[in-house]
């Protein structure tokens, strides 16, 4: 019994210590709705807004990493008002919200993230997404494109299947987020970066299948790096870059002592089916692997 008590006490101590300095388990997901102040034009208009005039929704990607954009409304009323907008999307696509409502001071804008899910059997083509305020509707066409025909800008990893050694479950850290095309650390814990589940245990791995043999010679890795969570304290420090050649993993580059938000590795061209990051250590507390994006060229 004494042995059991000691073991429990040690367990509790470790847990509390980790919670005190580790940002990962205690970070809430990024706020989904934000209101920003502004100056009203006094026209009374309530204008739907979107962060893009069209949305590319890749077909066949992991549902944990859906296409997304920011939507919102701007009020040019003279007085504060309660504003509501509906969100309509053509079947079989689905949107993460059907409505956006907010109290809006004059001139203020409300913004929210909208996720668009594409079922696997969706036909490619253009689909309608409409943001409908009482007197104005904004259309944002959604273009469903198979990953093989996506304009990847030369990044062979973009939207390709990702597997990882583990995944932290306290918030939204899906492995596919390292190939979603978003390098920004903003919105950490909200689906834009991978955090492994094994604190202070190494190595951790994340692998990206390239959809067939591809000639590659460069990998760029983006690790967590914000004002609040700088890479020099929370980012990845040491890792190997591996290429899968004829079914075998081959180390093609090594990064040691990194303290920056990103690092580029160049190597002799190889024909590879997949790329794997073997994470060996992180900075500061050396606790978790946190990767925002991996790009392969
Ligand atoms: Ca990302």
From TrEMBL:
Q: Which keywords belong to this entry? A: Signal
> Taxonomic lineage per UniProt?
Bacteria, Bacillati, Actinomycetota, Actinomycetes, Streptosporangiales
Question: Hey, what's the signal peptide range on this chain?
Answer: 1-20
- What Pfam families has UniProt attached to this entry? F5_F8_type_C
UniProt xrefs under InterPro entries: FA58C (IPR000421), Galactose-bd-like_sf (IPR008979)
What sequence ranges are listed for the domain F5/8 type C? 144-297
Q: Which organism is it from?
A: Nonomuraea jiangxiensis
Q: Would you tell me the protein name for this molecule?
A: F5/8 type C domain-containing protein
